[in-house]
């Protein structure tokens, strides 16, 4: 719950001045630039992508060496693909990594040799429900020599020979897990985190949409000088990245008061908020309030142990108040985890609507105060400059006027959002009146 701004400027004021069309175009352009790059947990493509982001946003890059323990996990080696293909008995390449970087499952082991048709089928994966889609697959933390190619179901008809030449040339080497971090200090050292993942290869909604949306969100936060909370952006490889960051910043975890994981947010599904584990943290209440008032199609979902890094932040011995902002979300749209998740699966307006929703959530979070009237009995309002409703102009009684609501409710026990929800009032209107009451010494901030 935030402090009072002496300038009486809020995050929503910055949002109202933002150029939504320019923002939408900028996000789509960046997604297009990042799309062709092959990324995984640790590799040269991930490093290149993070360096491109660093040219647009002043992130610091934290590095953690391969082999380093992160709680129950161990940071893996880097994995780069030089080339990978399957050729028939005549030397015709039937599958080639160079054509689409989803063809080879992440962290497949190297291999070169002839293999029978039946044996090859054990190393191929396809989806019969999406005939033209190349599935995305991974063999993370693979020390057993496994390898796998992913193909479109329609490609199966090309495999008619008895034997095939399989060639997988990969480079596995010690490197660093890299996390991009941007810290925006506020008046309080209490932190709000925004987490998104960069490790997926060429798929637009999952998760270039989350990357570009989170970056745009922080461009807006940078312009807000009256931040009460401190805000931190984390760009990392999914799962191992969030675990590594928390394991190396344990002393900071108690300072986290709220957070959002942002991913899969550029498609046309409803703007969806997935609650924290408890479902009753402040960010859950705020997100529910914002989505209930939105003109967009929206949905609030209870916490489930599937999804993205919100699982790590909400794990049993942490239970951090971190929710998740998505649109259709994981597995809930046709293109998910396939080559169909191209740039045309997302658009700038959908991305902007997600960013706008996140800003609106943080706008309330950063200024959702608890205040208390300083005098006993009803304040003598005639001595102040705040306009008090005349009796004959307010025949509907207490609930009719926002100022009367505040004068009745500010007892140091309820947030402005709780009061707004109880009386069906605009949070923004109550916030402005509360600022005036505090400015004139009628009320004081408790929290």
Layout: helices, strands, pairs:
Layout: H1 11-17, H2 20-34, H3 44-54, E1 60-65, E2 69-70, E3 73-74, E4 78-87, E5 93-96, E6 111-116, H4 117-121, E7 124-125, E8 149-150, E9 163-173, E10 176-184, E11 191-197, H5 204-223, E12 230-236, H6 240-247, E13 256-262, E14 271-274, H7 282-293, E15 298-301, H8 310-313, E16 322-326, H9 348-365, E17 370-373, H10 402-409, E18 411-415, H11 416-423, H12 427-439, E19 443-445
Parallel strand pairs: 7-8, 11-12, 11-13, 13-16, 14-15
Antiparallel strand pairs: 1-10, 2-3, 4-5, 4-9, 6-9, 10-12, 14-16, 17-18, 17-19
Helix pairs in contact: 2-5, 2-9, 5-9, 7-9, 11-12
Strand proportion, as a percent range, falls in: 15-25%
CATH architecture of the largest domain: 3-Layer(aba) Sandwich
Mean pLDDT, all residues: 94
Q: Which fold name fills CATH's third level, the topology of the largest domain? A: Aminopeptidase
What's the number of extended β-strand segments?
19
* CATH top level assignment of the largest domain: Alpha Beta
State the helicity in percent bands: 25-40%
The geometry reads as elongated
| Major sheet: arrangement of strands | 1-10-12-11-13-16-14-15
- Measure the end-to-end span: 6 Å
